[in-house]
Amino acid sequence: MKETFGSSHVPLSPAVRAGDFVFVSGQVPARPDGSIVSGGIEEQTRQVMDNLKAALALADAELPDVVKTTVWLVDARDFGGFNKVYGSYFESAPPARTTVESRLMIDIKIEIEAVAYKPR
Predict the structure, then answer these.
(1) Is the Cβ–Cβ distance between 20 and 120 less than 8 Å?
(2) Secondary structure of residue 3 in the 3-state scheme
(3) With left for phi above 0 and alpha for psi between -120 and 50, is residue 93 left, alpha or beta?
């Protein structure tokens, strides 16, 4: 059975539960009011991680439940700053991760999607 959680101004669900797995759509550095966080990679990564936590919570999951993330950085030179902040959210037993450099759909530095395992 598939359940969707949250809503968006674009055709996607912020979180989808399929059995014991929760799939979180790519999170961007947008505040709850939709405005984009200004500043560098560290500020934007913090907002993305907070948005990731919020999307997981919609499906009754948390960061420790995350088993895999995919990260897109606009500039590979931002990797060090991103990695420092990201690591502070996953201090022990971090998930598997893929990180790539890519253009993004809006003018931001980072986007992160996640898969969590959270049996009911």
Answers:
(1) yes
(2) strand
(3) left
